[in-house]
Amino acid sequence: MIERLIEEVMEREGGYVNHPADRGGATRWGITEAVARAQGYRGAMQALPRETAAAIYRRLYWRDPGFAAVAERASALGAELFDTGVNMGPGVATGFLQRALNALNRGARDYPDLVMDGRIGPATLAALDGFLRSRGAGAETVLVKAMEALQGERYLALAEARPANEAFLYGWLANRLAPQPA
Length: 182
What we know:
Blueprint: H1 2-13, E1 16-17, E2 27-28, E3 31-32, H2 33-38, H3 50-63, H4 67-73, H5 75-88, H6 90-103, H7 122-135, H8 139-161, H9 166-176
Domain TtsA-like Glycoside hydrolase family: 7-89
Pfam families: Glyco_hydro_108 (PF05838), PG_binding_3 (PF09374)
Domain Peptidoglycan binding: 95-176
């Protein structure tokens, strides 16, 4: 699953980009220069190998944040976390999940509220299991929709807070707010 998701995100992000309004600076395959350097890449960003970018995606945006464990339970949700994590950071994506799970637990009757720590650990996985078990068929779809609602609100807030981000808003809404196929 992750190999397909990585291919899709690299296709969507494209090759080398250095948009003047993007605070992230130069990117290749969607990997920022800061992330590439932090992961040991020393070459020119225009030459960042596809395989290096894929390895970074696998480690930083799938395995390390625990999205693979989520995907084992709910594949569409794992795909959504990966895509949101790539675009906004894994901690933000996990925060959306935790916030949605807290709001959907019927006053902590289905499972306890989570501490909003932006990390997927045993408590978040237990809450996810409780949500999926208590809500049955369609639960995963509802959770993905809740996360996308939070993501869309954040995009609008980013554009409102910094007019230069308006250059990206249309693309964010068009390309990021769609459930990722499992």
